[in-house]
Amino acid sequence: MSKLKTSMMERRWWNPYAVIFIAVLICFAVEVRSDASDHKYNPGDQVPLYANKVGPFHNPSETYRYFDLPFCSPAHVKEKREALGEVLNGDRLVVSPYKLEFLSDKDSEIVCKKKLSKEEVAQFRSAVSKDYYFQMYYDDLPLWGFLGKVEKEGKADPSEYKYYLFKHLHFEIFYNKDRVIEIIARTDPNALVDITEDKEVDVDFMYSVKWKETTTAFEKRMEKYSQSSSLPHHLEIHWFSIINSCVTVLLLTGFLATILMRVLKNDFVKYAHDEEAADDQEETGWKYIHGDVFRYPKYKSVLAAALGSGTQLFTITICIFILALVGVFYPYNRGALFTALVIIYALTSGIAGYTASSFYCQLEGTNWVRNVLLTGGLFCGPLFLTFCFLNTVAIAYSATAALPFGTIVVIFLIWALITSPLLVMGGIAGKNSKAEFQAPCRTTKYPREIPPLPWYRATLPQMAMAGFLPFSAIYIELYYIFASVWGHRIYTIYSILFIVFIILVIVTAFITIALTYFQLAAEDHEWWWRSFLCGGSTGLFIYGYCLYYYYARSDMSGFMQTSFFFGYMACICYAFFLMLGTVGFRAALFFVRHIYHSIKCE
Description:
Blueprint: H1 2-33, E1 49-56, E2 64-65, H2 84-88, E3 94-95, E4 106-116, H3 118-129, E5 132-138, E6 141-146, E7 148-151, E8 162-166, E9 168-176, E10 179-187, E11 192-194, E12 201-213, H4 223-226, H5 232-277, H6 300-325, H7 336-347, H8 349-362, H9 368-397, H10 405-432, H11 459-485, H12 494-521, H13 528-536, H14 538-553, H15 559-597
Parallel strand pairs: 9-12
Antiparallel strand pairs: 1-2, 1-3, 1-5, 4-12, 5-6, 7-8, 8-11, 9-10
Helix pairs in contact: 1-7, 5-11, 5-12, 6-7, 6-8, 6-9, 6-15, 7-10, 8-9, 8-10, 9-10, 9-15, 11-12, 11-13, 11-14, 12-13, 12-15, 13-15, 14-15
């Protein structure tokens, strides 16, 4: 009767939660996928052109508001109302001074005549020397351009460089009937202003507009931005990455099938023969520790919390892949990814609470409330501390990466009103599930002593061996992901990325099982934490790749960009550590249960 009651309690809690989760996911996908700029215009209609931000080309996190530089600015700057994801992405759109009416050509139209002071000239010169670019959006189509150029030819001494500011912008706009299809911004290389010296300069900021007709359909206007990642030579590299990963999986699978399974089969035959021949014969190998292998680990509350957080992060990753594969994250859908992460993380917190509390109670834990609180802070805590530091840095730099107070309040309310209640509800459901661990072997009262082992069987060398193979299966694809997240390259081949992720999960599970077997065969029964650490060690390798990418493959510089790169990459790699650690532990637990089910244990 009690089991029936418990089952009904679980069903009442989980079914509505699942329905709400799926409904919100579908609504989010539909809302984000719909093109908000599906506008039709008549000749002469004002089409909105928003100036977004400026910043050093090689420092993608270090961006500033457009009018932080002394451009022609109106008396009252009108800001565009932005969604949560756009603010998190660092977008700060304002109405630009350029007027681009639909089908209205213009030739050398003056925006304003401005006398730049010495300070403003120095400000522009500093921006040009750092390769500043600007970004704008016209009818939700992105466009970019550089502010100026540095003349270095024939000059060895940097003090002899000449600095020029572009003062004339050419807008080339393509249309199909009554819709905008494409826009290209070009700077006039002949319209330059010398800003090398600190002196007042008169500048006439101008622009030209040329409209051209095209046959490209409105629905396909964003395809040009994703074609760069689908070029033949890029696809060849991606497929080479997949082939490399598949070869790794096949080699590892073959190793497990031919070596590990043969050894296990011999073990099963040997142990069966020993039981029939002499019951008093001394046991050796992994059967010898059958009375200790299911002894509950130390710090079981932390392990349960890590499994809960890892399960939630794995669920988030799958949901993000689903949204990406159905086309939600098309190029320059501003803030869609950040919005999805915030919403899905809030909705899946119940999964973390349920998984952690249920497993903790299976390990005969009693303080489930502390376990739920630990689960809630295990990932959010380091992320919050990192955010506080980096947001302070962004505020000191007056960068757009600094979140406004209102956005911080919104995120806090989401955490307080959605994330935390669902986490507690999940913890209560996990506690009431009454699930039992059901170890196939009885645990002895006193643990056996672990024999002396060689140095390479210690935790750190095992983690190094466990993390190398999964990392080798994904490292080629990592470059393109880094170049997209920390650069200006566009990544849209989500199907290939999903295949690589599946390979990563499989390799992580297989290598953890293999190392767990060798650990048990050496009569080392403390496999619980070892399997989690070995599975998650790939996250440490990814962070090591961050060092290589920063110093060898990128031109990022400066305290703000460096702190943002290593700070947020530490959080991402920590998330990978928890997620893949959970995968490794679950695979090892399944394997250990299976082999000890297959023998007779007293």
